[in-house]
Every structure is written in structure tokens, then in C-alpha cells.
Design a protein that fits this description.
Strand content: 35-45%
Number of domains: 2
CATH topology of the largest domain: Immunoglobulin-like
Shape: globular
Structural class: alpha+beta
CATH architecture of the largest domain: Sandwich
Distance between the termini: 21 Å
Strand order of the largest sheet: 4-7-2-1-9-12
Radius of gyration: 20 Å
Helix content: 10-25%
Length: 300
């Protein structure tokens, strides 16, 4: 996969990334249609052409299934194109989500099958007052660990749980592993090596009434020695305060930069350079976070 295509799969937009992937594959639309048919997926050349030009987008269940198969035929990471779609375009009526929010299933596409049947708290029943991430990257031992602290407030009655989703970008590495939780009980935990995804359910000590608060802290172990040159968090809804601390052990990286990405698509917007201290740590603080992505990139 060339560098340009890899970048487009991170930033979108969907139609540009799909077009670049088709060009890189060297396959004609007829050959793509034929390869999809061999896998039991029926789709016309016209539909693929419309997708790659932005004239239409896959939205229905059968179209999304075809897109997932198309990712395999094109040799792309699972859900890499699906992630660029965002939520379904409105056709009248309401989506069931609060205004100004994004779908969890769209933000974490690889977790969709793992979320099925969990009975997760509906979007909007929990407000995020604060999120803190601490990422430790040890190049000496190869360990990568992420600790997270969530400050939550119930926006409905009898809210009794929260579900988190984690994905690994590189399909060559396994899913993250939950290694600890505080101030809550661990419910169901599901991992999918094929989709490199983890879903974990945290049960509160008691159901929360509207306006009541709780705090959850947990830790996940990322794949050992997974090459990393960036870190990001996706926000399905507004957050009052987000902080991230990165600690590097071993050879320090070079330039570190914070970027934001509004929504699910579009290019990364450079925000600021981050300073790396003598202890190998850096941090960022963002207040009044809107739905989208906040991340850090670094160079060796």
C-alpha cells in the first residue's frame, strides 16, 4: 500500500480513498464486480462507479456488506473504508442520537459485531465531563499500555453501565487486552482478533439517577512492539475536558504535533507542537471538545 493511499484511509474523504484504492489495485470495475460475485456479493459496476465519484454512498445493510467485501478484494484493512462513511445521511425523521453527536458504531466500525446483543446504554444517557488518557510506550521492553479515566454524569434515570471500544489500526497485530479496572465491575468482555477490536462492559456499583456522577478507571495493554507513530481518541459526543499524557521510554521521538479532525472525514488539522520533557513525557489539554478526533503524531 502506497503512502498516499495509507494517508487517505486515515483522513478521507470516502470517495477519494476508494478511488485511490481501486487505482492502486489495477483492477477494472468489471473485474471488481466479478471478484465480488465470486464471494457471493452482487453489485453493479455502476454502483461502484457512483461510490468512487461521490455520486452516491453505501448506506443500506447490503451495500455496507458489499463494501466490507470490497475492502478484502482491494487488500485494505478491515473497516478502513467503512470508517470514512460516518453516520447515515438523514432522509427525514430522527436518527435516535442527540444533535451534535456521532455514532459509536461509525466511530469504531470494527466493534460493531461485538456490540451486538450487549444492550449498551443508548447514546445520550451518559454525559462525559472529563476523559484522561495516559499512554506508555517502552521501546526497551516493547510494552504499550493505555490508562484511561472517565468522569461520567447520568442524563437519564437508572443508568447502570458503560461500554468502551478499542481498536488496533494495523491488521497485523491482535486486539488490545483489558488488564485492569477500578471503581466499577467488569461485565462482558469481547475480543475479535480478525477485526483487531476489544469491547468491554463496566457495571456501576449502583444504578445512577439523573444528574449523578461516577468515575471509571481502566487499563488496556496494546500489542507488544506494535510500531506507533501516532495516537488518537475518537469522541462521539461533547466532552468538557480531555487530557492526554504520553510517556516514551528508550530512544525519544523527534517532533510531536497535536492534530484535530472534525467529524469522521477530512484532513487532519495541525493545532500545535508538543514539547517532550527530559523524562520522556508530553501532554495535551483540550477543553470543550466537540465530536470528532484529537490525536498526536510524532517522528523518529
Amino acid at each position: 500500500m502506497n503512502r498516499e493511499l495509507r494517508q487517505l484511509l486515515r483522513t478521507g474523504p470516502f470517495e477519494v480513498a476508494l478511488d485511490a484504492a481501486i487505482e492502486a489495485s489495477g483492477l477494472t470495475l468489471e473485474r471488481l464486480r466479478s471478484r465480488l460475485a465470486e464471494g457471493g456479493v452482487t453489485i453493479s459496476r455502476t454502483a461502484i462507479s457512483y461510490w468512487r465519484t461521490g455520486r452516491s454512498r453505501p448506506e443500506r445493510a447490503e451495500s455496507l456488506a458489499a463494501l466490507s467485501r470490497l475492502e478484502q478484494v482491494l487488500g485494505l484493512p478491515a473497516a478502513s473504508l467503512v470508517a470514512l462513511l460516518g453516520g447515515r445521511r438523514p432522509r427525514g425523521g430522527t436518527s435516535g442520537r442527540s444533535p451534535g453527536t456521532l455514532s459509536r458504531r461509525a466511530l469504531w466500525p470494527s466493534c460493531g459485531s461485538l456490540l451486538a446483543g450487549l444492550g449498551t446504554v443508548p447514546d445520550g444517557e451518559l454525559e462525559f465531563l472529563g476523559i484522561s488518557d495516559s499512554l506508555s510506550i517502552d521501546e526497551n521492553t516493547g510494552e504499550r499500555r493505555q490508562r484511561t479515566r472517565l468522569v461520567l454524569r447520568a442524563a437519564a434515570e437508572r443508568v447502570d453501565r458503560h461500554v468502551v471500544c478499542h481498536e488496533v489500526d494495523d491488521p497485523a497485530y491482535p486486539a488490545p487486552e483489558l488488564v485492569g479496572v477500578a471503581h466499577a465491575r467488569v461485565g462482558r468482555v469481547r475480543g475479535d482478533a480478525t477485526n483487531r477490536a476489544l469491547v468491554a462492559e463496566f457495571l456501576f456499583d449502583r444504578p445512577l439517577g439523573r444528574g449523578e456522577h461516577t468515575v471509571i478507571e481502566y487499563e488496556v495493554r496494546l500489542p507488544t512492539r506494535q510500531p506507533l507513530d501516532h495516537y488518537y481518541r475518537r469522541f462521539p459526543r461533547p466532552v468538557g475536558l480531555y487530557t492526554a499524557t504520553l510517556r516514551f521510554s528508550g530512544p525519544p521521538p523527534g517532533r510531536l504535533r497535536r492534530y484535530d479532525r472534525p467529524g469522521l472525514r477530512g484532513p487532519e488539522k495541525y493545532i500545535e507542537d508538543l514539547w517532550l520533557g527530559v523524562a520522556g513525557t508530553t501532554s495535551l489539554v483540550a477543553s470543550t471538545v466537540r465530536p470528532g478526533t484529537i490525536g498526536v503524531r510524532w517522528e523518529s
